[in-house]
Structure formats: structure tokens, C-alpha cells
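Slide 14.
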Amino acid sequence: MLVRALIVLLASMNLGVALWWSLHRDPPPPAPPPLDPGVGSLVLARERPATPVADAAELSADPEPLPAGSTCMSLGPFDDAAALRAAMNTLLPLAERIQFREVSATVLRGYRVLLPPAASRADAQAIASDLASRGIDDYYVITAGAEQNSIALGSYKDLPNATKRRDAIAALGYAPQLEPRMDSAPQWWIDLAARAGVDPRAALSAPALTVQPVACQ
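Slide 15: predicted structure.
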């Protein structure tokens, strides 16, 4: 009987605990303290109202008009970024507006001297052997491509040195060609608007630069 009474007591206690948990509710959290006058509440980014289209349009408004008498021009070319930065820093106080742009240009890299293609590889080798016997050892027989069987006789940065080389080979009875070496490279131009009388080349001490008048926008 005692054992049965303990079992009934334990079962009743378990039922009581289960009933208490099912009916239990946590107390509500305390309310936040009131905000100081003039201080707004925290709003998440996704809860903010969308920006009106009119406000966004104001960001792309036209720049302020240029002063009367302003002139607009392009100045360049600048062949390296360091020279461009130095010029921009010098011209900035003189300009009403200023920006730069990069363009791809064909520039002269130097000159080369070569003999035109021989009729065959054997003929090219024979010419090379003849040049070597006359003390010309800095040459190269081109073995592939559009200039196959030509003989390269050197590349030069300066025209006088290239001309001297061409004439030396011509004195041996050959007909060498002197050609410019062209390559694509980036160049930079500065577009600026300034008051009348501003001379950007004088400000930069760079009379060799080109100044092109352009329409003011």
C-alpha cells in the first residue's frame, strides 16, 4: 500500500508541474526609458522611407555656370602619370574647372635598320656571312613572319644613330632600310576652363605642349 501511495503521489506531482509550465507566461519586458527632447528613435536602414526621385535628380544637376570671359581648352599630351599629376596640381588654382582624360595614341619609340627579305634562307645566310666577314657582327636573320629572311641591323632611339648605321651598311654595297618603330601607348590630356589670359603652358614652363581650344560645356 505504501508503494502504491508513493507512485500516486509522484504522478500527481508530475501532472502538477506539467500543468504549471503549460499555463506559465513570462512577464513582459520593461519599457525603454523615455528619450530626451529632440532626440529621434533608432530606425533600421530597411525601415527608412525610399528617397524621392526629385532628391536624386538634384544630385545630377548641372555645374555652376562659368564666369563671363572664361576660355576652355585641352592641354597635352602627357606621356606619364607623374607629369600629369604635377601639371594638375599646378593648374588647379588657375582653373575654374579641370579634369583629365586618357587616350590611346601611336607614339614613336625609335628607329630600326634592316635589309629587305632575301629570296631564300640560304641567300639570307650568305648575306649574313658576308657582313660578318666585313666586321659587322651585330645583326639578326629573321626566320619567321612577314619579314622572314630579312636581316635586322639594330634598333636605335635617336635618328642620327640610326642614319649612321644605315649609311655604314650602304657603304658595303647593300640597300638597308631605315624605319620608325611605332607602338601604342596611353597618353593623357587635361581639359580645363580658365579666365581669359591664363596661359597653361607658361604656368607649367612647358612650351612644347599643345593647347587646343574647345567649346565650353
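Speaker note: Helices lie at 2-23, 53-59, 81-91, 121-133, 159-170, 200-204.
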